[in-house]
Amino acid sequence: MRRKRCFRRAFPSKQRYFSSAMENARSKGRPAHEPAAITRRFVEAMAGAGVPQSEIASVLSVAVPTLRKHYRHELRRGAAIVEARLASRLMRIASGSNGTALKAIMFTLQCRFGWSRYAPPPRR
């Protein structure tokens, strides 16, 4: 009579054959991005100059979500610098007495304070 072969003996565990290979295996994918002080200053300067995030990410050779993850504070600070510069220039232009100053004042009122020349006057 023929004896049935045990499934476990016929196909031994993979761990026995591949254990040394599994110990030496690295994690999959690219290595994690490590931001340095110089790249932080670079990102802040570029964001302050108004360069789009996609271009900053391509210069650093990272994806845009990685850029936002590791350089969130620098991007915000750079954007705040741009906004402050634009606001100061707009106020300087608005302090004039010509037609450009009037347009700058109207633009500031519309953007910052929700003013509209087509809105009905407020009730008294």
Can you walk through the features of this model?
By secondary structure, the protein is mainly alpha-helical. The protein has seven helices and no strands. It has helices at 7-10, 14-24, 37-48, 53-60, 64-70, 72-94, 99-113.
Features:
124 residues, mainly alpha, elongated
Helices and strands in order, then pairings?
Blueprint (H helix, E strand, L loop, with lengths): L6 H4 L3 H11 L12 H12 L4 H8 L3 H7 L1 H23 L4 H15 L11
Helix pairs in contact: 3-6, 4-5, 6-7
Strand runs, count: 0
Largest sheet, strands/sense/barrel: none
Q: Which blocks of ≥5 consecutive residues have pLDDT under 50?
A: none
Terminal Cα span: 108 Å
Helix run count: 7
Instruction: Kindly estimate the percentage of residues that lie in beta strands according to DSSP.
Output: under 5%
Order of helices and strands: HHHHHHH
Evaluate the radius of gyration.
31 Å
Mean pLDDT over the residues: 78
Helix content: 55-70%
Short overview:
The chain has 124 residues and is mainly alpha-helical. The chain has helices at residues 7-10, 14-24, 37-48, 53-60, 64-70, 72-94, 99-113.
